[in-house]
Amino acid sequence: MKRPRRVKSARRPFPAWADYRRNSIWIYDVTHFAGCPKHAVFAVMDLVTRKWIGELVSIEETSTQVQVVFMDALEAEGLLELIEARQDAVPADPFPPGADVDVLPPVLLAVSDNGPQMTSGSTREFMAMCAIAQHFGRPGTPTDQAWIESLFSHVKADWAHLDRIKDPEVLRAELAVVRHEYNTVRLHAGIGYVTPDDEHDGRGPRIRAARKRGLRHARWARIIYHRSLKAKANRRSPADEA
C-alpha cells in the first residue's frame, strides 16, 4: 500500500496591519561562511525595500544574538525611541473594567523560519516587549523566507572572498563594508533596479519614473533617426547614385 502524498500547506499571509512600506516588515535569519564555520552571522533586512539593516557575527547562535542584532537594527532605523515611548505610555492598569480600549498595532512584523533561536521563549518575550509581532514560515520551506535567502546567496556569490576569511574580526569588518556596497551601489532587481538605500529613503519611485521617461525618449529618438535616414535615401537622385 502506497503512502499517501503529503499535501503542502499554503503560505500563511502577512497580517492586514503590516503595510507594504519601509520599516513595517523585517525579515531575519542566520548563515555561516566557510572560512569561519564555527561563527554564525545573523542578518536583518527590510523585506519591502530590501535594505540590509544590520548583522552580527557571533560564536553563539541563541536568542541572545537575535535580541542584540534586533536592538542594533532598531536603533539604526530610529525605531528604538518609538518603542521606548510606547512602553513609557503604558498605564499601570492598561485594561480597566468597562473602558474602551484602542489596541495599537505592533511596531513592525518580524519574519523568520522556525529555528530554535527564533521560536524560543526568550525571543518571544523580547519581541513582545518591543511590540514586534512574529511571523514564521512553514517548516522545511525556505522559500517562505526567499527574501533573506536571496540576500545570503547574492552576498556569497558577488563577494566570494568572504568565504575565505578565517578571522571572525576581519569577517565582521568586511561584512560592514559589503553591507554598505549592497545598500548603496548594487541595483536590486526585486525593487525595479534601484539600490536598497534609494528605495528605503523614498527615491526609488522617482528614479524608476525618470528611467521610464528616458527610455521612452530614447525610443522616439531612434525612430526619428531611422526615419530621417530613410527619407534621405528616398531623396537621393539617380545621378547621385551613379
Layout of strands and helices, then pairs:
Layout: E1 25-33, E2 36-46, E3 52-58, H1 63-76, H2 80-88, E4 108-112, H3 116-119, H4 121-129, E5 132-136, H5 146-158, H6 168-184, H7 196-200, H8 204-235, H9 238-241
Parallel strand pairs: 1-4, 4-5
Antiparallel strand pairs: 1-2, 2-3
Distinctive features:
242 residues, alpha/beta, Nucleotidyltransferase, domain 5, 2 domains
Cα-atom radius of gyration = 25 Å
Multimeric state of these chains?
single chain
Strand arrangement in the largest pleated sheet: 3-2-1-4-5
Q: For this structure, what is the CATH homologous superfamily of the largest domain? A: Ribonuclease H-like superfamily/Ribonuclease H
Q: How is the CATH topology of the largest domain named? A: Nucleotidyltransferase, domain 5
Domains counted in the coordinates: how many?
2
What is the typical, i.e. mean, pLDDT?
Answer: 90
Overall morphology: globular
CATH architecture of the largest domain: 2-Layer Sandwich
